[in-house]
Amino acid sequence: MNIAIVCYPTFGGSGVLATELGKALADKGHNIHFITYQQPVRLGGFHANIFYHEVRVPTYPLFDFPPYETALASTMVDVVKNQHIDVLHVHYAIPHAAAAYMAKQILAKENIKVPVITTLHGTDITLVGKDKTYSPVVTFSMEESDILTAVSENLKQETYNNFELAHKPIEVIYNFVDIKRFHRKPIEAFKKAMAPNGERIIVHASNFRKVKRVGDVIEVFKLIAKQIPAKLLLIGDGPERPELESATRECFLKDDIKFLGKQEQMEDLLPIADLFLLPSEYESFGLAALEAMAAEVPVIASNAGGLPEIIIDGNCGYMSNVGDVEDMAANAIKILKEDTVYATFKANALKQAQRFGIENIVPQYEALYKSLLPLGK
Ligand code: GMT
Hints:
Layout: E1 2-6, H1 13-27, E2 31-36, E3 50-54, H2 68-83, E4 87-91, H3 93-108, E5 116-120, H4 123-126, H5 135-144, E6 147-150, H6 153-162, E7 171-172, H7 179-182, H8 188-194, E8 200-205, H9 214-227, E9 230-235, H10 241-250, E10 257-261, H11 266-269, E11 275-278, H12 287-294, E12 299-302, H13 307-310, E13 317-320, H14 325-337, H15 339-355, H16 358-372
Parallel strand pairs: 1-2, 1-4, 2-3, 4-5, 5-6, 6-7, 8-9, 8-11, 9-10, 11-12, 12-13
Helix pairs in contact: 2-3, 3-5, 9-14, 12-15, 14-15
């Protein structure tokens, strides 16, 4: 099949998932056309079946806000027409689903039919999308998508709670992980550089937005470090980082907390971790936690959103109420303190991640695409 994928090309989970999906489909022989404003960060090297179409947004003195959505819809029209696209799959509703609707209408005038799948990822529904400045357009474009998918049961429910979608069905297709990529031996030299005296390595990775509660990560770490020698690696960047980083410089544990910034090679970093922290206010899914589990790293998280669908409490990690840093730290210590307990949690983390293995989930998307093709194709 010829499949066009539209996503944010940045480090956000929706862009990561969309890029990994495209790569997996290309490996299965499909032709994948990414339509984004920048090369997706997870795209990596050359692949004979993967094509990248950059959305150019010309500026003009009149434009305080260059019309990205118009440029995107026009690029979609061009790609669908010239690459004989069978399915247009957009990730993150805003503004991709609306642009896809526009492209579909334009193409219909030329008798070109292209089905649209919209995958909802989280904040497009729970934060940004439900704001009344966007919600009429988001509601309409979700209704108009041929198929709507959500990355967890929780997100499906949130969508029905926040939008008037009448009888529009939403298919849940969980996010996935390529276990082979993350389940590797830790790079010893790297581990030594981060924790020279064999301290436990605690990791958090996110886009440092308020919803991630990175301040809680630091509080949990402080409580852990009182009892167990440990180092904290904070991966990613975003609006909350500058303030947290300055505050950390004043803190007595400043030498034990490292801000690593954005990192492309998570498969090198996660295997050196002993524990992953994700105390978010909300996560529709928590792809970062799943990638950690695939690297055999137990997770301490909040019990918000879709996280209880991914993490088995007391088995491959623990979940606490949002903001309950004492409980999170106590659970972390329970896991890390005894080697035998720790080994069990590690093994369970990998086992649970395997349920979300790429080979189980990607065929679900392929089946959806096939269901949209005209008979005989
Ligand atoms: O986590 C973010 O803020 C980024 C956001 C995105 O759309 O890029 O992530 C959302 O989609 C991910 C992939 O489906 C999910 O794993 C994240 O849980 C979800 N984030 C939130 O719901 C806050």
